[in-house]
Structure formats: structure tokens, C-alpha cells
């Protein structure tokens, strides 16, 4: 099945762009990793880059964060040209995740003070910012303990807190919840949502968890074979793949079979639960047409199922998403 790449929906919106990328190329030796990437990410939004292992997500983050030079292409971060003003780019970004700066021998508070120092914050501001961040990230009680005693979730929270010490306008979160248990992952999601809501930062998120992208991101792009193969909101991406269906439940086999014979061969019967699965795009008109073809009064329950991002990922890349592999 082919899914066509959608246009860049926000490029026309007129919103100020936090990140603009045009024609980005990067090869390592013979291996072409990025083969012409275009991105426009509006300020104050959450953007998620998805892709199978080795697709080049970290390479994109490293290029945008000035850690790896691109071969060609133009990149503007917070209005600054990466090629001519890398220092200004570094001044407006924070990077967490696979390049964690957390020092396990120091306490959480000391780590935060060190970051404030690196950002040349005055001593007093440094202390108040550290306290503020410990509180924001639920680390006040453990602030004086060495980080090596922290759980994975606490370390990730501290990592994100340290990124915020410099008050960045754009934050790169490279797989921020990989390896966390479901509860810690949800905690991180709530923190990220609060950051975007309260501080209007722009988030560039890479993740293996499609559910994470679906929950947090305003825009999702799928990177595969060196190119962005689809981009849009979670809903837009899901609407591009088949998998939507209506589930009709009946009181008994007789009414179920009567409906099945009127609906034709695409219907899947589940005799154990007296249900029929009927492929549908779930639009109001197709659901209305469907009900008009059967004795609607015999339906005891009715539900719509949309494809999830896993279906999208599979259709686009031929691989299951990270969550599915676990
Ligand atoms: N410094 C480097 N030298 C040579 N090859 C590299 C280098 N960095 C990345 N690569 C290669 O580029 C490709 C993309 O790597 P990258 O880490 O960007 O992918 P990814 O999408 O982040 O993968 P994952 O989901 O596994 O973290 C991989 O094949 C990787 O081996």
C-alpha cells in the first residue's frame, strides 16, 4: 500500500517558525542517511519525528543541535542560521535524552547549580532557579541526595530540569521515556505538556512510542529511507491508512446473521460475541448508510474503531512501532 506524503500543513500558517529546515542532506561515508529533509515547526508547538531504528532521527537532532555538521541544506533555529550563527543556535536550545549531562556523583541540586553556572546565571538567580526546578519536577525531597541513587524516572526528570536551567526556547527530547515504566512515562508526559502550556517552549521529540507521539505532538513526521514519508497531525496520519471499522453487536446469532447477509462479503462475523466488524472510513455519511442497510433496531451496541499510529507506521515503513516490538 502506498501512502502519499502530505504537504507541510503549518508552513502556510504564517506562525513564527521555531525551526525551518530545507533540503537537508547527510551521509556517513557511502551511507546516505538524510536525503533531502524539509521541516517547518511553529513556535510553541510539539513536533515529533518517528522512524524505524537507524532511520536518522538522532542524526537530525544532532544536526539541529549543532553537534553534527550537515553536508548540505539550510537550517534556521529560532531565526538563527546554523551555518553562520551556531553560537546563537546553541543559546536558544536545550537537549535532553541520549546526550544526558547528569553527573551521578553530584546531588540533584548540585547538578542544577552547575547548569546555572554554565549558563552564567548570577549566584542568587542560580539558587532560586534550582529550587524552582526541583519543585516543578517533584525532586525537592530528594534534591540533596546523590543522583546515582535515583530511579530511571527521577534521572530523566532531572535531565529535563537541567535542560531548563538555561531557559531554552526550543527543547530537543531524544527518546525521553525509553526504558521508563508506564507510570514514570505518564509523569514525563504530564511534565512535557505543562512545559508547553506554561512556558510556551517548542519541543522537538523523537520517540519509539507511537502512543507518546500521538498524545504529545501537534505535528508528527515519519522519517524513512532518508526522507520524510508522511507528515501531519496524528489524526491526519491515521486517516491515510485503512483499518477503520464499525463494530455492531447483536442480541443473538439470528439477528447477527440477518445483518451480515445484507452487508455483504467484507463483513467479519464473531459468533462468540454476536458482533460484526464492518470496514468503514467512519465518516458520518458512511455510518448512516451502513445502518440504513440493516434493521438498525436489532443492534444492541455500536462502536467506531479508528486505525492507530501503529497501523500508520506499519503502512509507511513496513515495520511495527517500538511499542509493538516490546
Ligand atoms: N557518526 C557516525 N558515523 C557513521 N555512521 C553513523 C554515525 N552516526 C549515525 N550513523 C549511522 O546513521 C544511521 C542513522 O543513525 P541514527 O542514530 O541517526 O538513527 P536513529 O533513527 O536515531 O536510530 P535509533 O532509533 O536506533 O536511535 C545509522 O545507520 C547509523 O549507524
UniProtKB/TrEMBL annotation:
It holds the Pfam family ABC_tran. Keywords: Antibiotic resistance, ATP-binding, Cell membrane, Membrane, Nucleotide-binding, Translocase, Transport. Its main location: membrane. It comes from the Bacteria. InterPro entries: AAA+_ATPase (IPR003593), ABC_transporter-like_ATP-bd (IPR003439), ABC_transporter-like_CS (IPR017871), ABC_transporter_ATP-binding (IPR050763), DrrA (IPR005894), P-loop_NTPase (IPR027417). Signal peptide: none annotated. It is found in: Cell membrane. Residues 19-250 form the ABC transporter domain. The keyword Thylakoid does not apply. It is a peripheral membrane protein. One of its GO terms (molecular function) is ATP binding. Belongs to the ABC transporter superfamily. Drug exporter-1 (DrugE1) (TC 3.A.1.105) family. This is ATP-binding cassette domain-containing protein. It comes from Kineosporia corallincola.
Amino acid at each position: 500500500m502506498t501512502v502519499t506524503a502530505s504537504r507541510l500543513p503549518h508552513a502556510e500558517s504564517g506562525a513564527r517558525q521555531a525551526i525551518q529546515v530545507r533540503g537537508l542532506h547527510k551521509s556517513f561515508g557511502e551511507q546516505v542517511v538524510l536525503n533531502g529533509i524539509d521541516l517547518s515547526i511553529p513556535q510553541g508547538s510539539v513536533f515529533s519525528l518517528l522512524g524505524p531504528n537507524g532511520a536518522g532521527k538522532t542524526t537530525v537532532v544532532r544536526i539541529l543541535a549543532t553537534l553534527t555538521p550537515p553536508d548540505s541544506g539550510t537550517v534556521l533555529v529560532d531565526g538563527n542560521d546554523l551555518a553562520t550563527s551556531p553560537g546563537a543556535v546553541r543559546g536558544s536550545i536545550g537537549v535532553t535524552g541520549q546526550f544526558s549531562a547528569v553527573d551521578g556523583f553530584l546531588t540533584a541540586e548540585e547538578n542544577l547549580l552547575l547548569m546555572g553556572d554554565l549558563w552564567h546565571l548570577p549566584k542568587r538567580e542560580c539558587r532560586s532557579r534550582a529550587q524552582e526546578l526541583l519543585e516543578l519536577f517533584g525532586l525537592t525531597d530528594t534534591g540533596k541526595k546523590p543522583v546515582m541513587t535515583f530511579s530511571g524516572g527521577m534521572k530523566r526528570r532531572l535531565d529535563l530540569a537541567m535542560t531548563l536551567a538555561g531557559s531554552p526556547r526550543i527543547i530537543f527530547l531524544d527518546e525521553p521515556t525509553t526504558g521508563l515504566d508506564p507510570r514514570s512515562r505518564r509523569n514525563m508526559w504530564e511534565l512535557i505538556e505543562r512545559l508547553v502550556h506554561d512556558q510556551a517552549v517548542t519541543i522537538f521529540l523523537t520517540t519509539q512510542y507511537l502512543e507518546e507521539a500521538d498524545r504529545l505532538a501537534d505535528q508528527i513526521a515519519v522519517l524513512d529511507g532518508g526522507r520524510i514519508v508522511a507528515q501531519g497531525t496524528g489524526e491526519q496520519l491515521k486517516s491515510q491508512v485503512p483499518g477503520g471499522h464499525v463494530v455492531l453487536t447483536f442480541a443473538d446469532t439470528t439477528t447477527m446473521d440477518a445483518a451480515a447477509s445484507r452487508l455483504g462479503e467484507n463483513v467479519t462475523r464473531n459468533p462468540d460475541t454476536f458482533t460484526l466488524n464492518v470496514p468503514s472510513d467512519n465518516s458520518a455519511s458512511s455510518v448512516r448508510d451502513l445502518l440504513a442497510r440493516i434493521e438498525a433496531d436489532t443492534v444492541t451496541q455500536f462502536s467506531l474503531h479508528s486505525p492507530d499510529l501503529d497501523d500508520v507506521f506499519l503502512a509507511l515503513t513496513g515495520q511495527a512501532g517500538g511499542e509493538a516490538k516490546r
